[in-house]
């Protein structure tokens, strides 16, 4: 199915004029788009800070810990180890993560859910302060979840634009310095995402990115082309990923988003769930090609998500990316959730006596991926032999 | 075929290499020759171009020369085809395939470019004559409400269509969205317009499935308008603004950004290109070559010498000048241009012309 992306009529058309340019006396039907894009950098007082933070998060040997599961999702995880979904338990779990010794050597940013951003440790220390002590920048998930697009085959849009500016401002005050918004595009057997889904999700991402930057938060732009059922090839994933990312990048530019102040969180290119899995070299080849074709060099960091890969694959594939792109213009690194948390959670089992061991596993996993980012990972993997990490799409807004 | 095209694109944009744009249409080159005191005859055009193609421009750093279709079939005085003269010194032959500018309906002063209807047949013919790459020029005005949305969209679509057809026929497309130097806009306004135009062009290339690894782009450096009344932009400012825009818009897969000289003097063009590359190196490098596809900036001094004397000794001097100009810009691509510029026309100021691009002699 060919997605024909006829452009939306003038969504980006604003009739503002650059200072000094003569205004046309007759308004023609070809409206002009003469807003100074690079003037945004001069207009935004956060511009230098955004650039510095984005660079800092994406620096070599570092990646992001994605720990922003909603309360409902966190509950499901805690359930697997027999722990009740209470605020205290959620707090304990995140405290375990954020106080893991030496985590800051490998992790440059941690994405949080709103509840967590405002939580304190058992000892009464703000989580944002604990993270800062580790040299880890606090981030915040700002989308409010997926909604099904009517008339599509289960495709989704992401919600959360309403009141986003005010929320970002408050999060910044609390100590957050970057944000995250996850858009999901589906591929399944023989079909890519519809043009409606691509347009809708790209627009949401670009608007979110604009608003986040206006309020001092580096936006992680996450257009996830999610792994789906079917035996479709890795080339197909690459093809659809290219379509999606190129449209996202186009809108980011049209909406005057400062690319040096964003981070990208894409999927690696993988074949369909029912196709034989690809080697790290193959994954790297198609992933790198897709990034080269769609992402301009001013984006400082590309932080891949781990969905669809096992913990070990997440590390091996990350390393293969470095081999496949030795002089990459952007950092090729990670923003991993379950690839860092799964084994940690299993080790903890909710028991006090396992706290230290669980933290050690987390740090070991972070270290392995940090080494992979540097192309220096040697193994053995701290969590070998795991199955693919898959996530069913949840609709209906973020759980409270 | 795709792999061959990718190799060609890489060859054209190899380190220290750039392009000679000598594809002026009969009308345009005619006006230039007439200004220099010549009659616009086929022989005048042929003998002028011969100076370049028989000069040692290959070893001076030229990897490709863009020709006009008349020139593609012409020969040197000794009967050697120009394409052959070029090939012998490792210079690939390129061909201008657009058929000139036409006014754009509903957008006064703005243009689109002709040539899509006959493009495929034309390309196959050019390939048979030895062409390896092609060029299509869109021209966009800046200022006074321009470029309009329709202008950007139409030209970007045409460029993408052209690029796709070229690749299907075995030619590497050079995509040229020229934002004109005409106007009194400042550098920031030019940067904004360039960002919008280049972003749109890239988006359409991607939608058309054009192989970016086998595509070159030919934009203008980010400079203020020719009639801007403020202070002139120094090379450092040109470099910073140009790099910022390119880094914001151009995906890493494109192997070369071949800047046009569009009205800058020979010396300005070289110095700006040099500074762009120096600043690029000093700020972490760039994934594409930052190179040149210069017309007037590689030719003006040659034409001056030629207009003064068409004897044998002068021919030799003209060839030397052609090679010297090429060499200066080749050094600039490496960020290593220094010393005296060979130009003898830079004192005369801008090489801006107002008659470029409008073809009535198709």
From TrEMBL, chain A:
Q: Name one Pfam family in it.
A: Glycolytic
UniProt catalytic activity: beta-D-fructose 1,6-bisphosphate = D-glyceraldehyde 3-phosphate + dihydroxyacetone phosphate
In which pathway does this enzyme or protein participate? Carbohydrate degradation; glycolysis; D-glyceraldehyde 3-phosphate and glycerone phosphate from D-glucose: step 4/4
Look at the named UniProt entry and state the broad enzyme category this protein falls under: lyase
Gene Ontology BP term (one): glycolytic process
Task: Identify the EC number(s).
Answer: 4.1.2.13
Q: Which family does it belong to?
A: Belongs to the class I fructose-bisphosphate aldolase family.
The name under which this protein is listed is Fructose-bisphosphate aldolase
* Source species of the chain: Chlorella vulgaris
């Amino acid at each position: 199915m060919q997605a024909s992306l006829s452009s939306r009529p003038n969504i980006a058309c604003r009739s503002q004029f650059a200072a000094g340019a003569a205004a046309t006396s007759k308004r023609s039907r070809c409206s002009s788009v003469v807003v100074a894009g690079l003037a945004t950098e001069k207009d935004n007082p956060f511009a230098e800070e955004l650039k510095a933070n984005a660079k800092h998060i994406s620096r070599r040997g570092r990646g992001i810990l994605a720990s922003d599961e909603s309360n409902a999702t966190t509950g499901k995880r805690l359930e697997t180890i027999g722990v009740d979904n209470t605020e205290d338990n959620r707090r304990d779990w995140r405290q375990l993560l954020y106080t893991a010794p030496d985590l800051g050597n490998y992790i440059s940013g941690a994405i949080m859910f709103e509840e967590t951003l405002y939580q304190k440790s058992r000892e009464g220390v703000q989580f944002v302060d604990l993270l800062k002590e580790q040299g880890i920048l606090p981030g915040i998930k700002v989308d409010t979840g997926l909604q099904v697009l009517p008339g599509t085959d289960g495709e989704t849009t992401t919600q959360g634009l309403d009141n986003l500016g005010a929320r970002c401002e408050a999060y910044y005050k609390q100590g957050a310095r970057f944000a995250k918004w996850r858009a999901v595009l589906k591929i399944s057997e023989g079909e890519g995402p519809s043009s409606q889904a691509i347009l809708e999700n790209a627009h949401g991402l670009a608007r979110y990115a604009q608003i986040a930057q206006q309020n001092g938060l580096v936006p992680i732009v996450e257009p996830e082309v999610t792994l789906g059922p079917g035996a479709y090839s890795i080339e197909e994933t690459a093809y659809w990923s290219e379509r999606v990312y190129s449209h996202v990048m186009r809108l980011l530019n049209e909406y005057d988003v400062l690319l040096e102040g964003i981070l990208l969180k894409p999927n690696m290119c993988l074949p369909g769930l029912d196709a034989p899995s690809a080697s790290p070299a193959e994954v790297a080849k198609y992933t790198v090609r897709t990034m080269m074709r769609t992402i301009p060099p001013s984006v400082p960091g590309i932080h891949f998500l781990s969905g669809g890969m096992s913990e070990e694959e997440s590390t091996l594939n990350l390393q293969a990316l470095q081999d496949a792109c030795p002089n990459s213009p952007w950092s090729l690194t990670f923003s991993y959730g379950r690839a860092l948390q799964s084994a940690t959670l299993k080790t903890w089992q909710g028991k006090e006596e396992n706290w230290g061991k669980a933290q050690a596993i987390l740090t070991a996993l972070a270290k392995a991926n940090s080494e992979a980012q540097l192309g220096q990972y040697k193994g053995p993997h701290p969590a070998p032999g795991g199955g693919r990490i898959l996530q069913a799409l949840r609709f209906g807004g973020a759980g409270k | 075929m795709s792999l061959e095209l990718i190799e060609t694109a890489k060859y054209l944009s190899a380190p220290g290499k750039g392009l000679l744009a000598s594809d002026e249409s009969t009308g345009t080159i005619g006006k230039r020759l007439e200004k220099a005191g010549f009659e616009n005859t086929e022989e005048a055009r042929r003998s002028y171009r011969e100076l370049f193609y028989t000069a040692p421009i290959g070893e001076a750093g030229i990897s490709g020369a863009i020709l006009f279709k008349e020139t593609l079939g012409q020969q040197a005085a000794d009967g050697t085809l120009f394409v052959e003269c070029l090939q012998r010194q490792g210079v690939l032959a390129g061909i201008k395939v657009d058929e000139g500018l036409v006014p754009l309906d509903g957008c006064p002063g703005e243009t689109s470019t002709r040539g899509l209807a006959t493009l495929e047949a034309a390309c196959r013919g050019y390939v048979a004559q030895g062409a390896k790459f092609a060029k299509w020029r869109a021209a966009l005005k800046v200022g006074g409400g321009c470029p309009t949305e329709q202008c950007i969209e139409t030209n970007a679509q045409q460029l993408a269509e052209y690029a796709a057809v070229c690749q299907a026929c075995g030619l590497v497309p050079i995509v040229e969205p020229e934002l004109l130097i005409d106007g009194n806009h400042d550098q920031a306004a030019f940067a904004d317009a360039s960002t919008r135009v280049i972003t749109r062009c890239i988006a359409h290339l991607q939608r058309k499935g054009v192989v970016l690894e086998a595509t070159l782009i030919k934009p203008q450096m980010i400079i203020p308008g020719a009639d801007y009344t403020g202070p002139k932009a120094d090379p450092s400012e040109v470099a910073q603004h140009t790099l910022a825009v390119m880094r914001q818009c151009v995906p890493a897969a494109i192997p070369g950004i071949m800047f046009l000289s569009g009205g800058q003097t020979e010396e300005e063009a070289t110095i700006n290109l040099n500074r762009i590359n120096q600043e690029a190196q000093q700020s972490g490098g760039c994934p594409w070559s930052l190179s040149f596809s210069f017309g007037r900036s590689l030719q003006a001094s040659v034409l001056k010498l030629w207009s003064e004397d068409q004897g044998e000794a002068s021919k030799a001097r003209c060839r030397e000048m052609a090679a010297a100009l090429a060499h200066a810009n080749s050094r600039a691509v490496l960020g290593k241009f220094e010393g005296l510029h060979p130009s003898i026309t830079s004192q005369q100021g801008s090489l801006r012309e107002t008659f470029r691009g409008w073809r009535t002699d198709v």
